[in-house]
Each structure stands twice: as C-alpha cells, then as structure tokens.
Amino acid sequence: MTTPEIRDILLENFDGKIGDYHEFAKSEYQKRYGSYIDVADKEWLRDVCLFLRDDDRLQFNSLLCLSTLDNNDSTLSVVYHLESTILRHVLAMKVTVPVTETEVPSITDVWPHANWHEREGWDMMGIRFVGHPDHRRILLEEDYPGHPLRKDFREPTFYHGMKVPY
Amino acid sequence: MGLLDTLHDQVDYSIPNDKTGEGSVVVTSVDALFNWARLSSLWQMGFGLACCAIEMMATSASRFDMMRFGVIPRPSPRQSDVIIISGTVTLKMASRIKMLYEQMPDPKYVISMGACATCGGPYWEHGYHVLKGVDRVIPVDVYVPGCPPRPEALLEGLMRLQEKVRQETTKTV
Q1: Measured between alpha carbons, how far is A61 from A55 in angstroms, rounded to an integer?
Q2: Considering only CA atoms, which of A5, A24, A26 is closest in space to residue A84?
Q3: Beta carbons within 8 Å of A38's beta carbon, 6+ residues apart
Q4: What contacts 24+ positions apart, CB below 8 Å, involve B65-68?
Q5: Which of A153, A159, A166 sits opposite B91 (nearest CB)?
Q6: How large is the average pLDDT for residues A125-134?
Q7: What pLDDT is attached to residue A35?
Q8: CA distance B162 to B158
C-alpha cells in the first residue's frame, strides 16, 4: 500500500487531523521511504498511532525509527517511520512543534521500542514526550546544559570544572 | 655400565666457585633496584574506552604479547600501576577517570593512547561531549599518537614509559 492510500484511510477516521502528503523522491525506493505525511494536530498523534497499529488494513506492527529535526525556523519536528512486517508497507509521519512549546505525546505504550528513541529525542533535541514512563536523558549527564543538536546550541565553556572548547 | 653413564663420566660437573653467586654480594643502589622492579612489572588497569581499546587488546593478545614486558591487566585500580587511556574521553567519563586515577596507589603512570585521548582527535571542533585531551583531568606521562595507534606504537610508548621510570629517584617518587 502506498503512502497516499494510507493517508486516504486515515482521512476517513481522522478528518482534519492529518496534514498534507509530501513527496520529494525520484526513484521508487525513495518514493517508498522518502515521502511522508504530516500530522496536523499533535494531540491526536497517539490515537492515529493506535489506529495505524490495530487497523486490519494497515497493521503497522513495527516502529522502524523515531528521529528528531531542527528545521532552523523556530520549529522542531519528530519523524516516525513505521513498517508493517505483515503487509510489507511503510509509512513516514511528521509532527512539527514550535521551539517554544516542545511537547509531543509519547507513543511508548503503542510501540515499546519508542522508549529509548524518545529519550534520545529529549536528550539531543529537547523535545518533551508527555506520558513517557522514564523521561531521562539517555546519553549525556542529567545536568548537561542544553540540548546539543539544536541549531541555537552553544557548547559550554566549562563543565564540572573541565574546559570544554579545544 | 650404560651409554648415559659413559657420557656422564666425560662431562665435568664441577662448577667454578666464582660463577654461582653463592656467598657473593650484588652492589646496587636503592634507586636502581626499585626502578628495575617497577619498570619490569607495570601492571595495567584493564580499562578500555573506544576503538583504541581494540588495539590495546590486540597488543595484549598473543601476537604482540604485552605480558613479556611485565604488563598484566588488573581488574582493580588499587592493584595497578599504569592506566592506558585508550579512546575518546567524554565529559561523562572524565570524572570517572579522575576517580579511578585517584584510587590507584603511587607510583602511578598514565599513557594517553590515540588522538582522542591526547587532544580530542576528530571531535576537536564539534565534540560538545568530548574532553579535548585527558591531560585536562589527570597528568599524562606518555602520549602515543595514532588513530588508533598500531600495537607496535603502543609497545613503543610502553618502552618509553619504562625508560622514564628508569630515570626516577626515590627522592621524587
């Protein structure tokens, strides 16, 4: 099933909550993995994910990847790559939030593999995943200043008395 | 009388008295004795950080065999004389390394292995999480360049450390 067909199924149930379909790919491979749909209303993200997992036509039983982006225009994005290992189709979804209010619903209870990915998203990009069961940094120390993959990040001069710049 | 007995009769088993060392005195200085003992048994802390640790393990293995220099990996900092910083020192790890170094008994030595431990290596500019040189936390005796250094280079660094230990006196240690 292609991404526009999946989007049509979603629109039947979540009218107005699902955004546009973006395709910037040339080859079939890129069309399969490179196109994505927007989730317009992030409050409905968890319901959309549950529908994608449980609907018989979709059966997305695997979250391939959860990654975060800084779009450099005061917005951050979370990208969800899903795959159905039963029906052999893939889907990419994107949620965009303003940098001032970076709260996205956690989907750890939908796909448990999202747990560490969301912790990494908090650690590196500073996106809060509301409802996450273990919302800590995953790699850096808890008192590290800032989230280093943000475009506006400046590395600290000193950290615990150690000089950081070269 | 067998063949072996015949042979034994022909061998002179009397040992010259002046070559056994029995009853003799070896004269040396305390410095030389201590230094010889220290440089011949540099016990290494079993501690690896990144890809340099793979080369360090290769140096310990049978082809290069660090143990012929008296380097034995020890599982505890309290039993070790030398710590080989083999890899990228992150800011999170730096405080742990400092604690491990402080737990080692004197005299203690540090080998900084590879570009990352020496100056940050490829992370020198954008490594927000990397300590740019382990000598910002603990004093380093020998720097081994390379990314990662070959086992021969690490052995060279080890022999340089042995030469350094040979120059020490009890007044400074």
Answers
A1: 10
A2: A5
A3: A18, A19, A20, A22, A93, A94, A95, A96
A4: B66/B155, B66/B158
A5: A159
A6: 92
A7: 83
A8: 6
Pairwise CB contact (< 8 Å): A164 & B120: no
pLDDT digits 0-9 by tens, B64-117: 999 999 999 999 999 999 999 999 999 999 999 999 999 999 889 999 999 999
Instruction: Tell me which of B101, B129, B132 to substitute to probe the interface with A (most A C-beta atoms closer than 10 Å).
Output: B129
Sign of CA dihedral A148, A151, A152, A156: positive
Please tell me the total number of residues recorded for chain A in this structure.
Answer: 166
Q: What is the DSSP letter of B150?
A: P
